[in-house]
Amino acid sequence: MKLIFLGTGGFQPTDSRHTLCLMIPELGIVFDAGTGAYRIKNYLATKDITFFMSHAHLDHIVGLTYLLPEMTMGTVESATVHGEQAKLDAIQEHLYSEHVFPVKMKYAWTPLDGPVDVPGGGRLTYRHQEHPGGSIGYRIDWPDRSIAYVTDTTANGSPESIDFVRGVDLLVHECDFEDKDESFAHMTGHSHTTPVAELARDAEVGRLMLVHFDPLAADTDHPIDIEVARNIFPKTTIANDLDEIDF
């Protein structure tokens, strides 16, 4: 099974990173719909797409408008958007306001109400997280593999956060800031390097891939000191746009 990183940045796109969007093409599963979602059309392997939205901040939802050509032409026959009810309501009211994007796309807006069965015999569970306005972390367990997607929250080492991702084969976690910017992480509801690596270590995950970096970092190709993370959890990688990962 392959995971494609269509966008790995946070807040706004840069010359090297679009905002968050991850895709499992063979299952038609997409996590978030940032500006990287314009690349979905290049990886379509199913007629049905299922989005799982972490929250409704603009850098995570704007790409929901980008599927209009594919849905109009029938390349995508159906698309479902899962998320918290309040967030789905906000997207429909504001993103699809006639003054903002005057085309009502035929999404099935489906609020989260317990675990979700996903293609391939998988089971998706989720966790409410601390972030301005709140966010959702996701985990999918298949019979032979597992993945967790955790973004837009402050890693704090709580027992709940550790248990949620415990033992996953692949943890994709935001790491917006380096440790020197810890105060900004807490102020904005994001994470910095050391607590994220400690989470991966304490939860005994198989692999950690970092996403959602500060677009104002001096070097957006190397936005954090990766060696700090690797000294705590050696199997840590900085994800880049268009990376393809077998898991």
Automatic annotation (TrEMBL):
Short name of one Pfam family: Lactamase_B_2
Organism of derivation: Stratiformator vulcanicus
Key word Hydrolase present: yes
Taxonomic path: Bacteria, Pseudomonadati, Planctomycetota, Planctomycetia, Planctomycetales
EC number: 3.1.-.-
Residues forming coiled coils: none
Keyword terms of this UniProt record: Hydrolase
EC top class, as a word: hydrolase
Gene for this chain: rbn
Metallo-beta-lactamase domain: residues covered: 51-213
Protein name: Ribonuclease BN
SUPFAM superfamilies in UniProt: Metallo-hydrolase/oxidoreductase (SSF56281)
InterPro entries on file: Metallo-B-lactamas (IPR001279), RibonucZ/Hydroxyglut_hydro (IPR036866)
Domain of life: Bacteria
